[in-house]
Amino acid sequence: MTPDRRTFLTSAGLAALAVGTAAVTSGCTSSGSGGSAAPGTSASLSVPVDSIPVGGGVILDNASFVVTQPTAGEFRAFNKMCTHQGCPVSSIEGATIVCRCHGAHFSITDGSVTQGPATKPLRAATAVLDGAEVRVSAT
Ligand code: FES
């Protein structure tokens, strides 16, 4: 049985909350986002490997990261704030990170822009495999 995207978002968010190392604030009203750590902070958190789909990724509800797994065992992380006008990205559709504010698309592999209006890639974060978890922090 394969969990749907909402399950991934929820499980990743709960896992991050359980670890409790991310700065968690509320106030974001976008659907699927429960808060975020301030971009550029040194907050780190752990995300279960099994919550990050191969060929896709997960947008963390309670931290400012997108964590992706372009190929099995290869993990990447990016700041989830769109480089166009700062909306948090909305979804991951296949190998594409989507910002619905104005339609920008980014690669799950390197955060590069695959469709405008954004012109700059998502800001890279650090993703390190640690057993059954991926430790994510701002670079
Ligand atoms: S803020 Fe993301 S496309 Fe405009």
What's the average pLDDT?
78
> Can you write the helix and strand succession as a string?
HEEEEEEEEEE
Report the CATH topology name. Rieske Iron-sulfur Protein
The fraction of residues assigned to DSSP E strands is: 25-35%
Describe this structure in words.
The chain has 139 residues and is mostly beta strands. The protein has one domain (5-138): Rieske Iron-sulfur Protein (3-layer Sandwich), CATH 2.102.10.10. 11% of the residues lie in helices and 31% in strands. The strands form two sheets. A six-stranded antiparallel beta sheet has the order 1-10-9-4-3-2. Strands 5-6-7-8 form a four-stranded antiparallel beta sheet, with no helix packed on it. The longest helix is centred in the first third of the chain and has 15 residues, at 5-19. The chain is globular, with a radius of gyration of 13 Å. It starts with a helix and ends with a strand. The model is unreliable at 1-42 (pLDDT under 50). Residues 82, 84-87, 99, 101-104, 117-118 line the site of FE2/S2 (inorganic) cluster.
List descriptors.
four-stranded antiparallel beta sheet, 10 strands, binds FE2/S2 (inorganic) cluster, 1 helix, six-stranded antiparallel beta sheet, mainly beta, disordered N terminus, 31% strand, Rieske Iron-sulfur Protein, 139 residues
SSE inventory with pairings:
Blueprint: H1 5-19, E1 44-48, E2 56-59, E3 65-69, E4 76-79, E5 91-93, E6 96-98, E7 105-107, E8 113-115, E9 124-130, E10 133-138
Antiparallel strand pairs: 1-10, 2-3, 3-4, 4-9, 5-6, 6-7, 7-8, 9-10
The chain binds FE2/S2 (inorganic) cluster (FES).
